Amino acid sequence: MSVVIPAPSAVAPAASELLDHQGRERTPSATNLTYEQARLGTAFHEAGHAVLAMAYGMRVLTSQVIAWIPEPGVSRVTGRTDVQAQASFHLWRFAAQAAAGQVAQVRYLMAYGLWTPERAAACAADHDRDQAVDVLTEYGHCLGIDHVPHGGKSWGMVRGMASRKVGYLWREIRTVAHAMNDHTVLSGDEISALTGLPNASFEGGAA
Question: What is the helix (H) or strand (E) element at residue 48, kind and residue range?
Answer without folding.
Answer: helix 35-55
